[in-house]
């Protein structure tokens, strides 16, 4: 608490003093009137007593009124600037404090990370040259009204931010005429929202495209069977076989879409079941033996003796390793073997490492980071011939993330592909 030195209050006029004590004088008059009516006091002494009371009230000094200082009056020099800085640092979004000339006064920690070139003491336009930002800052300086706009940057990476430029108004001041006025610029990231929206749009477009092709084929074959090939038994048998394949393709795509939707719905819920990972891998291999023999290759497994227990959802982990082995059989058939190993992770936070390796043609390095994207295909025609939907590795990625695991893919042209799954 800051103590303020007291100063003598200016003397009040007599009428003001009497008005301040009006209630006391009124009470005295009532008492005297009652005494006169009761006969205890005659009229002359009563009038004299009332006049004496008025004289005393007029001569007594008035009580001083103490007014508490405002917050801004209490702040010592420099305290206001520190308060603004503390306010900016409390924000989790990037925040810049500018003076009336658009010179940076303060940057909070988030702003320093996102805009390392923005330095206090320099004009903000020296580092951030976006025309919309410059116009917004100038407009706020002229009108004192808050401005909001969307900032889209493409370098060094594509980002979107909601930018709010607002005057920092202090009580009792006219912001537009104050030479010490300041404004605040805040940045709220919209990048993830934009990417999710783009992903959703791509997903709908790709899913529609994947379903449109087999549907168009089915409609074409049905029209042919109803028309020119209505009495051609050989053509009918051939067309019906193709139609069955297209229907199976649509069914597989819908199953994968539903599976992906279920996984995303429970993405935040960590599995709690206990399973034997070695036994699960053997079961997956046994289920794919027919496909492996048809592709003329062997699935070679290297598993530890005994039980390898992990925490997880059995059906989802089965789907993970079924997808990985199935891909290795489809795209690595030229290598004659698919190797599946289960070993200790040897990495903090993880217990088991499962790797699935084929010795097929491999892929170019630029494709590897995108293999887990939905509907991403290196060669769409080959993928369709292999009855792939383009969702297998996307499903694998989401399941592994739900299990708090780690998925890595390594591949080079001519050296096959190795997919590793680390599980806690």
Task: Please sum up the structure shown.
The protein has 424 residues and is of the alpha+beta class.
Task: Provide an overview of this structure.
- This protein folds into four domains: about 1-70, no CATH class; about 80-190, PAS domain (Beta-Lactamase, 2-Layer Sandwich); about 195-265, Helix Hairpins; about 275-424, 2-Layer Sandwich (Heat Shock Protein 90).
- Helix content is about 45%, strand content about 15%.
- It has 14 helices and twelve strands.
- It has helices spanning about 15-20, 20-40, 45-60, 70-75, 80-90, 110-115, 130-145, 190-225, 235-265, 275-285, 290-295, 315-330, 380-385, 390-400, and strands at about 95-100, 105, 145-155, 160-170, 180-190, 275, 300, 310, 335-345, 350-360, 405-410, 415-424.
- Strands 2-1-5-4-3 form a five-stranded antiparallel sheet, with helices on both faces.
- A hairpin with a 5-residue loop joins strand 11 and strand 12.
- One of its GO terms (cellular component) is plasma membrane.
- Keywords: ATP-binding, Cell membrane, Kinase, Membrane, Nucleotide-binding, Phosphoprotein, Transferase, Transmembrane, Transmembrane helix, Two-component regulatory system.
- It is an enzyme of class 2 (transferase).
- Its main location: membrane.
Write the layout of secondary structure elements.
Layout: H1 14-20, H2 22-38, H3 43-59, H4 71-74, H5 79-90, E1 95-99, E2 104-107, H6 109-114, H7 131-143, E3 147-153, E4 159-168, E5 182-189, H8 191-226, H9 233-265, E6 274-276, H10 277-287, H11 289-294, E7 298-302, E8 309-311, H12 314-331, E9 337-344, E10 352-358, H13 380-385, H14 392-402, E11 406-411, E12 417-423
Parallel strand pairs: 7-9
Antiparallel strand pairs: 1-2, 1-5, 3-4, 4-5, 6-8, 9-10, 10-12, 11-12
Transmembrane segments: 27-60
Subcellular location: Cell membrane
Protein name: histidine kinase
């Amino acid at each position: 608490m800051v103590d303020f030195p007291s100063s003598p209050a200016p003397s009040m006029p007599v009428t003001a003093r009497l008005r301040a004590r009006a209630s006391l004088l009124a009470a005295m008059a009532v008492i005297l009137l009652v005494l006169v009516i009761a006969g205890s006091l005659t009229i002359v002494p009563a009038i004299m007593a009332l006049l004496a009371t008025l004289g005393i009230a007029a001569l007594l000094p008035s009580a001083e009124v103490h007014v508490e200082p405002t917050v801004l009056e209490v702040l010592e020099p420099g305290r206001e600037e520190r308060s603004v800085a503390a306010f900016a640092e409390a924000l989790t979004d990037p925040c810049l404090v500018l003076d009336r000339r658009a010179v940076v006064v303060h940057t909070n920690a988030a702003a320093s990370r996102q805009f390392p070139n923005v330095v206090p003491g320099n004009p903000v336009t020296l580092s951030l040259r976006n025309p919309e930002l410059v116009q917004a800052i100038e407009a706020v300086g002229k009108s004192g009204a808050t401005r909001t706009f969307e900032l889209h940057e493409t370098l060094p990476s594509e980002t979107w931010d909601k930018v709010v430029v607002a005057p920092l108004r202090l009580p009792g001041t006219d912001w537009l005429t104050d030479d010490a006025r300041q404004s605040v610029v805040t940045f709220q990231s919209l990048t993830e929202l934009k990417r999710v929206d783009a992903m959703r749009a791509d997903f709908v477009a790709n899913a529609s495209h994947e379903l449109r092709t087999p549907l168009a084929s089915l409609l074409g074959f049905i029209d042919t069977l109803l028309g020119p090939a209505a009495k051609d038994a050989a053509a009918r048998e051939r067309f019906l076989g193709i139609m069955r394949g297209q229907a199976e393709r649509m069914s597989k795509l819908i199953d994968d879409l539903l599976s992906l939707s279920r996984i995303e719905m429970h993405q935040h819920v960590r599995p709690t079941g206990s399973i034997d990972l070695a036994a699960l891998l053997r079961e997956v291999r046994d289920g794919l033996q027919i496909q492996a023999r048809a592709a003329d290759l062997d699935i070679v497994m290297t598993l530890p003796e005994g039980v390898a227990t992990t925490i997880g959802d059995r059906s989802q982990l089965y789907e993970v390793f079924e997808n990985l082995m199935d891909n290795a059989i489809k795209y690595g058939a030229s290598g004659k073997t698919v190797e599946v190993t289960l070993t200790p992770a040897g990495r903090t936070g993880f217990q088991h490492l499962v790797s699935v390796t084929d010795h097929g043609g491999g892929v170019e390095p630029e494709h590897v980071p995108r293999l887990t994207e939905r509907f991403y295909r290196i060669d769409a025609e080959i993928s369709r011939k292999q009855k792939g939907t383009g969702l297998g590795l996307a499903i694998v990625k989401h399941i592994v993330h739900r299990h708090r695991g780690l998925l890595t893919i390594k591949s080079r042209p001519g050296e096959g592909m190795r997919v590793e799954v680390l599980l806690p």
